[in-house]
Amino acid sequence: MTAQDGARRAVRSFVRREGRLTRAQARALEGLWPRYGLRPEALQDLEQAFGRPGPVTLEIGFGSGDALVALARRHPERRYLGIEVYRPGIGRVLQRLAAEGIENVRLLEGDATELLPWLPAGVLDEILIFFPDPWPKKRHHKRRLIQPAFVAELVRVLRPGGRLHLATDWEDYALHMLEVLERAEGLENLAGPGCFATRPASRPETRFERRGRARGHRVWDLRYGRVEARRPQPQPPM
Ligand SMILES: C[S@@+](CC[C@H](N)C(=O)[O-])C[C@H]1O[C@@H](n2cnc3c(N)ncnc32)[C@H](O)[C@@H]1O
């Protein structure tokens, strides 16, 4: 997938909601973006974008940033990139980062399908996608973020040995994720083929997880490692 292909993509995995941008969030977006925000081009050189070394974790669709902020606080030695389209969420995270003096996070505003192609291959150590919009109606399934072409792009930007971690509280989406990920070239299920993972204690609880549990939903974790793509096996002589 190229940057142009991403830009042409008509089916979006999100609905733009601007509604409830508070004054403090608007102030944060204006005042703090220069400190934490990146333009897509900056993804071509992460060393310069962060100005510090360390393994890089990308969270796609961080929402209000519950996981992103908790992880960045817990691991100052790592670097965290967050991609989100929801501006009130971005504003909220900017406020939290500044209030806590967290410096190992950089944010991008936009559609992950359009931003990922800016990243060089193999530069990420970890990708997190927690509680992506489930699009439960069958006619909306095509809007789900986890699709074969998108997963191929995730595989491209992960380094060999890197990790992919997803979680959802929708059983039908969990099964869809499992099916797509099991078929993806270059990924190995860390829980064993066809299996969901045990919830790692390291995954911070997010707003959407709390909401799902309050509604009585179960939660499914999926964890994969980036492996070299299978090479075609030599055919035995006839
Ligand atoms: C259901 S919310 C979950 C938020 C957060 N991960 C949590 O667990 O609280 C899904 C988020 O993904 C974002 N999102 C959906 N599609 C996206 C895309 N293509 N690129 C970036 N963000 C996206 C939405 O704006 C929304 O904030």
Q: Characterize the largest beta sheet: strand count, sense, and whether it forms a barrel.
A: 7 strands, mixed
As a percent range, the share of helical residues equals: 25-40%
The CATH architecture designation is: 3-Layer(aba) Sandwich
With strands numbered from the N-terminus, the spatial order across the biggest sheet is 3-2-1-4-5-7-6
Content-based structural category: alpha/beta
How many separate helices?
A: 10
Span from first to last CA? 38 Å
The low-pLDDT segments are none
Series of H and E elements: HHHHEHEHEHEHEHEHE
Question: What spatial form do the alpha-carbon principal axes imply?
Answer: globular
Strand residues, percent: 15-25%
Mean pLDDT reading? 93
Give structural notes.
- With 238 residues, the chain is of the alpha/beta class.
- It has one domain (3-11, 18-226): Vaccinia Virus protein VP39 (Rossmann fold, 3-Layer(aba) Sandwich).
- It has helices at 3-8, 23-31, 33-36, 46-50, 66-74, 87-100, 112-115, 148-157, 171-183, 207-214; strands spanning 56-60, 79-84, 105-109, 124-130, 158-168, 187-189, 220-226.
- The chain has a seven-stranded mixed beta sheet with strand order 3-2-1-4-5-7-6, with helices on both faces.
- Helix 6 (87-100) links the parallel strand 2 and strand 3.
- Helix 2 (23-31) crosses helix 6.
- The chain is globular.
- Bound molecules: S-adenosylmethionine.
- The site of S-adenosylmethionine has 24 residues, from strand 2, helix 7 and helix 10.
